[in-house]
Amino acid sequence: MTLGHVDVVKRGLKLFDRVVIGVADNPAKGPLFDVDTRLQMVKETFSGEPKVEAVRFSGLLVDLAHQQDASAILRGLRAASDFEYEFQMATMNRRLDERIETAFVMAREDYTFVSSRFIREISAMGGDVSELVPEVVMDYLCKQVPVEGE
C-alpha cells in the first residue's frame, strides 16, 4: 500500500458512506508480502477510520462487491496510461453486473509516479521510500530488507 492508495481511500470517503478495501489473494502478481500481511498492513493503516474496512478476497471483484452489498467499485487513476486498463476492467465488470458502477478518482500530483512495483524495487535495493508509503508499511519493509552482513 502506497500513500497514493491512502489518498484514493480518503477521497472515496467523501463520495461514499464507507470504503471496503479488497486485498486480493493473487500470488501470480508476485507481491512482496503474503495476503495476510498485506491485509494486516491495510487494517493498521486505517485503524483510526471507522468507515474503512479491509477484507481478503479471491476471485472476481464484482463478487466481492455483492458480498459487501456495495453499489460501486472505487479506482484511482495516476496517468493516461492507467486509463486504458481501468476502462477495460470497468467495462468487463459492468458486463458481469451492470448494477455495480465504477468510480474513478484522479491521483494527487504528488503520487502520479508512485506504483507498488516501484516501491518494491526501490526498497529491495535499499532506497528510501518513507515519503511514499504509510509508516506502517515502512515498518514492514524495513523488516524485509536484510541487514548487511547477515
From TrEMBL:
Chemical reaction(s) catalysed: (R)-4'-phosphopantetheine + ATP + H(+) = 3'-dephospho-CoA + diphosphate
Cofactor requirements of the protein: Mg(2+)
Keywords: ATP-binding, Coenzyme A biosynthesis, Cytoplasm, Magnesium, Nucleotide-binding, Nucleotidyltransferase, Transferase
Residues the UniProt record annotates as site (Transition state stabilizer): H5
Locations listed in the record: Cytoplasm
Cytidyltransferase-like domain: residues covered: 2-121
Pathway: Cofactor biosynthesis; coenzyme A biosynthesis; CoA from (R)-pantothenate: step 4/5
Domain of life according to the entry: Bacteria
GO cellular component: cytoplasm
Main location, first listed in the record: cytoplasm
Binding sites annotated in the UniProt record for ATP: H5, G76, L77, R78, E86, Y111, T112, F113, V114, S115, S116, R117
GO BP, one annotated term: coenzyme A biosynthetic process
Pfam families named among the record's database cross-references: CTP_transf_like
UniProt keyword Thylakoid present: no
Gene Ontology molecular function: any one: ATP binding
EC numbers on record: 2.7.7.3
Binding residues annotated for substrate, in chain numbering: K29, L61, R75
SUPFAM superfamilies registered for this protein in UniProt: Nucleotidylyl transferase
Assembly and interaction partners: Homohexamer.
The family this protein is said to belong to: Belongs to the bacterial CoaD family.
Functional note: Reversibly transfers an adenylyl group from ATP to 4'-phosphopantetheine, yielding dephospho-CoA (dPCoA) and pyrophosphate.
Protein name: Phosphopantetheine adenylyltransferase
Encoding gene (name): coaD
